[in-house]
Amino acid sequence: MNRIVYVNGDYLPEGEAKVSIFDRGFLMADGVYEVTTVIDGKLIDFDGHFMRLERSLGELDITNPMDRDAWLEVHRQLVAQNGVDQGMVYLQVTRGAPGDRDFIFPDPEATTPTVVLFTQSNPALVDSPKARKGIKVVTIDDIRWGRRDIKTVQLLYPSMGKMMAIRQGADDAWMVQDGEVTEGTSNNAYIIKDGRIITRALSNDILHGITRAAVLRFAQEAQMPVEERSFTVDEAKSADEAFVTSASTFVMPVVEIDGAKLGTGAPGPLATRLREIYIDESRKAAI
Ligand code: PMP
After folding, report:
1. pTM of the full predicted structure?
2. Where would I find the beta strands (DSSP E) of the chain?
3. Which of 24, 51, 56, 72 could join 95 in a cystine, given CB atoms 3.0 to 4.6 angstroms apart?
4. Catalytic residue positions?
5. Nearest C-alpha to atom 1 of ligand 1 is from which residue?
């Protein structure tokens, strides 16, 4: 693999790209990220991801180093230079690399944010074998911090959670707080009961998924009722269907929760339909 990546203004072969050991992203997870999906060489929901990036940076008092059009240009350059047809563009902005390690934020005049972007190709994104079978999830305690609405690079617990799931023969974990599901390790969580789509309401407890916003809009347009409210693990286990959403998995059916099969144990009709609608509509609107 010899990708062209972007680091602080330069397009470089990945082996030549470097970030300081004093970078606060590396030392303190002091940074945010976005993942924008690419289909047919075009970006899905670029503006949604750009707006969430601005919000995440604002919440952490990091100045956005580029405007919308500059970000778009870097995304497009990387997609073109790496010949990405299906895959994603990852971007990360950290508070930068001051001279010394210190808990106090460095003077923003003296320390500029670090900007890194790279691409990953995945030809099986749309026609995903996992989506045809559905995924199994297990539930784990949500022990993350209280600002999950900020898309920071503190991903150790979600990564550990995914490993806990895999060790139990599942694909992913749903995190649970006070008996209620917050979200998946890297996706938003939904159940369907009697034709109603139920997903936790937006708050600081979950990431405000860009795919979530699009899917809820498409569901309403297709006359599928949506309830934005919390649900318990027991309610989830007795649901008719379930699914997760994220930029890189779109709508992914869930067929088992803590060993309890949902419905027939195959992806449900509403989740399957929502996946098709999401992919069709996103493809049409891609830039
Ligand atoms: N929740 C969490 C914890 C996530 O990491 C992600 C994906 N980054 C999502 C939800 C889904 O967000 P999006 O639809 O914007 O990819």
Report:
1. 0.97
2. 4-7, 10-13, 31-39, 42-43, 87-94, 114-121, 135-141, 172-177, 180-184, 188-193, 196-199, 226-228, 241-246, 250-257, 260-261
3. 24
4. 151
5. 187
- pLDDT, tens digit, 9 for 90 and up, residues 179-219: 999 999 999 999 999 999 999 999 999 999 999 999 999 99
Pick the CATH number of 4-121 from 3.40.50.1100, 3.30.470.10, 3.40.50.2300, 3.40.50.300: 3.30.470.10
Residues at CB less than 6 angstroms from ligand 1: 35, 183, 186-188, 207, 209-212, 245-247
- For domain 129-285, give the fold: D-amino Acid Aminotransferase; Chain A, domain 2 (3.20.10)
* Cα-to-centroid distance, 185 and ligand 1 (Å): 8
